[in-house]
């Protein structure tokens, strides 16, 4: 079966600027999640745990845990356990999380356990990048399991070496917050853009008064805030809701070389060019039409340009795309004559290198 391109068009044509909330364009410096991780043991498995002969760290962990519980194993004892698995526990600590709150955790097998279904995670400290313990995790795992349907003729097996525990960790330490230090905050645009930084600064000063916001560069904007915490929270709530009239986004084409997907955020036009790739040939030409009004008609001379695209593939199949063609029509035409994703990738790269494609080309 012939592979077909998946063409996704998300056109944002150049036109009047769109208004977006400041919350969607920027984040507040310091208001972020922090990653936590820890090493622990899952017990109570139904014979699907680590093979201790091949995972010595699991045996060492069990011995250490038993010693902490006051149980000393005789020297030379060889543990042969099948219901224990060594795991890594990961979580994200939300901004402003306080001791006593609970967060979700993900438990992933480190050894060769076949399944974590039905297991219980023993108390595991979760540490941050600074080595401090910020949460303690424990609880019963929920793992998507295997199922059969149609009298057992159809079997579906999910990934059994990873499980989740909703609310499985309790926060023990809060991350220090410097929000509002020196009565100011920093807004960080999600994408560096000098024009948007200027528009954000202007919109904030128009709403809250001159001098409240100052752009430091194309990404960071310094904003003065009230001194009291309650007024600061109210101020930030209003700040996030400020409407910003952003300019048109840059033309961009994203090509997935593995799936053949092409995504564009604008109608990208092409300059006249000619490309030969294997048994494919692409010719893009521009035809100028001049319309001259008759004498004394009061009209004016009109000049229009039409882009013509011709594609050929042996044994001679030809497609002509009408005037005003865009890259979207080129991709459709290539698909119609049976080009492969590799053909399209090579042609797009050649168009970009020749300067005929007026867009940023990103290959993923």
Describe this structure in words.
The chain has 364 residues and is α+β, with helices and mostly antiparallel strands. Mean pLDDT is 79; it is low at 1-16. The chain is built from six helices and 22 strands. It has three domains: 34-171, no CATH class; 178-246, 2-Layer Sandwich (Gyrase A, domain 2); 251-363, no CATH class.
Task: List the main descriptive attributes of the protein structure presented here.
3 domains; Gyrase A, domain 2; single chain; 6 helices; 18% helix; alpha+beta; six-stranded antiparallel β-barrel; 364 residues; disordered N terminus
| Proportion of residues in β-strands | 35-45%
Which blocks of ≥5 consecutive residues have pLDDT under 50?
A: 1-16
Output the strand order for the largest sheet. 4-5-6-11-8-7
Question: How many helices?
Answer: 6
Average pLDDT score: 79
Q: How large is the radius of gyration? A: 31 Å
């Amino acid at each position: 079966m012939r592979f077909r391109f998946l063409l996704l068009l998300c056109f944002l044509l150049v036109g009047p600027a769109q208004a977006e909330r400041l919350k969607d364009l920027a984040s507040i410096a310091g208001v972020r999640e922090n990653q936590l991780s820890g090493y622990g043991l899952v017990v109570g498995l139904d014979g699907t745990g680590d093979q201790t002969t091949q995972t010595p760290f699991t045996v060492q962990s069990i011995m250490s845990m038993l010693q902490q519980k006051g149980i000393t194993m005789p020297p030379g004892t060889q543990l042969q356990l099948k219901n224990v698995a060594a795991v890594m526990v990961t979580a994200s600590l939300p901004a402003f999380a306080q001791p006593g709150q609970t967060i979700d955790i993900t438990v992933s097998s480190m050894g060769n356990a076949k399944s974590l279904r039905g297991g219980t995670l023993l108390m595991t400290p979760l540490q941050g990048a600074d080595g401090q313990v910020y949460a303690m995790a424990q609880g019963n795992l929920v793992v998507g399991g295997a199922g059969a349907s149609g009298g057992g003729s159809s079997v579906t097996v999910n990934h059994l070496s990873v499980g989740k525990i909703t609310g499985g960790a309790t926060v023990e330490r809060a991350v220090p917050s410097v929000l509002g230090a020196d009565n100011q905050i920093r807004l960080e645009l999600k994408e560096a853009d000098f024009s948007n930084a200027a528009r954000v600064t202007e919109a904030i000063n128009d709403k809250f008064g001159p001098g409240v916001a100052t752009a430091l560069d194309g990404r960071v904007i310094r904003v003065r805030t009230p001194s009291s915490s309650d007024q600061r929270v109210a101020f930030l709530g209003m700040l996030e809701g400020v409407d910003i009239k952003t300019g048109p986004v840059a033309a961009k084409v994203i090509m997935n070389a593995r799936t053949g997907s092409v995504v564009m955020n604008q109608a990208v036009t092409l300059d006249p060019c000619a490309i030969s790739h294997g048994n494919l040939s692409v010719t893009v030409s521009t035809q100028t039409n001049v319309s001259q009004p008759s004498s004394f008609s009061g009209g004016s001379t009109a000049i229009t340009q039409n882009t013509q695209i011709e594609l050929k593939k042996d044994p001679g199949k030809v497609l002509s795309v009408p005037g005003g063609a865009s890259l979207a029509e080129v991709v459709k035409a290539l698909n119609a004559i049976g080009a492969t994703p590799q053909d399209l990738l090579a042609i797009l790269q050649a168009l970009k290198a020749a300067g005929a494609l007026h867009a940023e080309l990103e290959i993923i």
